[in-house]
């Protein structure tokens, strides 16, 4: 007899970037009588009627396989496999994983032979497993690529038209459903042009980076050449492609190879190279704009700028132990500012910390407990706190005690004199040294004052208890008075009749009938009270 069937399905990528994949169905338990594959559109393909590759094939033991090739799938599309051998039916469903398209933000030349490509992560789609930066160039320095042809899943670099003009340094090729508002780029819409030039020799290259990264340094480029860049986001099955970004290296004067180093806690030194343009538009007399801002701080929205004539600058008046982002651009004699360099970050050195925050004290007759807030301006890594104290009227040196680097409280030993005034000081340390101290005057308590406070608390407690009892008694009296008055009113409203058998008088309440009649009638309600 035929065995019980089991079916599994999977997806294999053929070319991730152009959206081609294979749907594979596998059954075990002998040759199936029927086998089919369903797609997201609901179409059922009978694999038994397909001859050659793609139809049901024996792959070993009692296992049979069938496959179909598909393109341009959408993330989440569901595919299914179904098989039957007359004894049992089996099915299995699975979904397609497609990464979203990353947004290519910018390409910045960092030296004569290198650029940095930066993008943002896709906002949807499958989990990104990595990124691949695609870049290529032609062999002519005068070629300007003005048009390109792309599809949803593929960027076709070969379908480009060329022009021997030098009108712009950056041309962006974009899909017709995309919008770009970057004024520094010359945009060109997609066309269906398939014209090619046999004089162009393209060199296609790639660089892979982890899925956690959003930028890549591309090196070993040729200055004055035009390059085309795109970014591919890979996933388990299919990839998402960014739009194309085109940049010609060396089209304007640039500040490249920017380096920075902290000189002190408030000064950073910056150096760079002046890379002149490949064309005759390079200016002989230039200045440089240096912009810098604090990173991840309250002052990060403040952008500072200085103009210098040489290829170095000193940034002063900075905040200690703070990261600064620095960019440099060339300014020509007409005051026009060129492209800024890719940001360089540098951390200023540590300094002594600022004063600690508010200090509070909790005294007793023989000791004092202090608490405080860390410095508002640590200016580095706090490694310790120091507490010192002495009697106000004493000329003896202070007692100094080092506290833990993490603790923001301290308790003195139990040997202080009672009813004595002390001056306490707290200061923080970095590896550079201590900051300014914050002082507080505190008097220890006397045993007599504590006893007085306890007596007062007891008396207040007794007084509070007596007042509470009085309020309760007064409330009970008021409640009893109200109850008795209402009871007497109820008795006056009752008509009674004797009941000798029980020796009691039963009270029965009557009320007029709602019935409109010439003779008054009454209706009885249940007995409410038994009055003895």
TrEMBL record:
CDD domains cross-referenced by the UniProt entry: FN3
Query: Record's Gene3D superfamilies?
Result: Immunoglobulins
InterPro entries reported in the protein's UniProt record: FN3_dom, FN3_sf, Ig-like_fold, Striated_Muscle_Regulatory
Q: Where is composition skewed (Low complexity) in this entry?
A: 151-169, 183-203
Q: Name one Pfam family in it.
A: fn3
Q: Please give the organism.
A: Geodia barretti
**Fibronectin type-III domain location:** 101-196, 254-351, 352-449
What is the name listed in the Swiss-Prot or TrEMBL entry for this protein? Protein sidekick-2
Ranges annotated as spanning the membrane: 458-483
Q: Where is this region: Disordered?
A: 151-212, 513-532
Residues in a coiled coil are none
What keywords sit in the KW lines?
A: Membrane, Repeat, Transmembrane, Transmembrane helix
SUPFAM superfamilies associated with the record: Fibronectin type III (SSF49265), Pentapeptide repeat-like (SSF141571)
């Amino acid at each position: 007899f035929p065995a019980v069937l089991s079916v599994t399905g999977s997806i294999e990528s053929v070319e991730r970037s152009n959206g081609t994949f294979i749907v594979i169905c596998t059954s075990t338990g002998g040759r199936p009588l029927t086998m089919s594959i369903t797609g997201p559109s609901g179409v059922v393909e009978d694999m038994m009627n397909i001859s050659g590759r793609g139809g049901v094939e024996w792959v070993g033991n009692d296992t049979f396989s069938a496959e179909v090739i598909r393109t341009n799938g959408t993330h989440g599309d569901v595919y299914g496999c179904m098989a039957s051998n007359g004894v049992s039916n089996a099915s299995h469903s699975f979904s397609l994983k497609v990464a979203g398209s990353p947004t290519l933000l910018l390409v910045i030349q960092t030296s004569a032979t290198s650029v940095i490509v930066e993008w943002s992560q896709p906002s949807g789609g499958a989990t990104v497993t990595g990124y691949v930066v695609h870049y290529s160039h032609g062999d002519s320095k005068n070629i300007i690529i003005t048009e390109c042809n792309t599809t949803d899943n593929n960027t076709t670099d070969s379908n480009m038209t060329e022009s021997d003009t030098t009108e712009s340094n950056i041309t962006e090729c974009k899909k017709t459903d995309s919008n770009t508002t970057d004024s520094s780029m010359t945009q060109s819409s997609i066309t269906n042009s398939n014209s090619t030039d046999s004089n162009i020799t393209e060199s296609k290259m790639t660089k892979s980076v982890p899925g956690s990264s959003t930028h890549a340094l591309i090196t070993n480029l040729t200055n004055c050449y035009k390059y085309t860049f795109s970014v591919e986001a890979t996933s388990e099955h299919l990839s998402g492609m960014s739009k194309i970004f085109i940049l010609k290296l060396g089209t304007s004067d640039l500040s490249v190879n920017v380096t920075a180093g902290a000189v002190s806690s408030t000064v950073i030194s910056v150096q760079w190279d002046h890379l002149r343009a490949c064309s005759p538009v390079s200016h002989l007399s230039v200045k440089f704009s240096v912009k810098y801002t604090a990173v991840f701080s309250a002052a990060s929205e403040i952008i500072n700028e200085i103009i210098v004539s040489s290829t170095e600058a000193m940034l002063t008046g900075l905040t200690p132990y703070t990261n600064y982002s620095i960019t440099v651009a060339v300014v020509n004699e007409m005051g026009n500012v060129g492209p800024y360099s890719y940001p360089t970050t540098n951390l200023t050195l540590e300094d002594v910390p600022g004063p600690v925050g508010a200090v509070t004290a909790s005294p007793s007759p023989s000791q004092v407990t202090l608490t405080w807030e860390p410095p508002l301006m640590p200016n580095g890594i706090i490694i310790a706190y120091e507490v010192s104290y002495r009697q106000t009227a004493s000329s003896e040196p202070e007692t100094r005690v080092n506290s833990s680097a993490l603790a923001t409280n301290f308790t003195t030993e139990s040997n202080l004199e009672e009813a004595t005034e002390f001056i306490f000081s707290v200061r923080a340390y970095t590896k550079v040294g201590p900051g300014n101290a914050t002082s507080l005057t505190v008097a220890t308590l006397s045993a007599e004052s504590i006893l007085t406070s306890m007596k007062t608390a007891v008396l207040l407690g007794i007084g509070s208890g007596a007042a509470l009892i009085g309020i309760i008694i007064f409330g009970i009296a008021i409640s009893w008075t109200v109850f008795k008055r209402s009871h007497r009113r109820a008795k006056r409203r009752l008509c009674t009749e004797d009941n000798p058998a029980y020796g009691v008088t039963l009270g029965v309440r009557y009320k007029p009938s709602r019935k409109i009649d010439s003779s008054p009638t009454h209706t009885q309600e249940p007995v409410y009270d038994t009055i003895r």
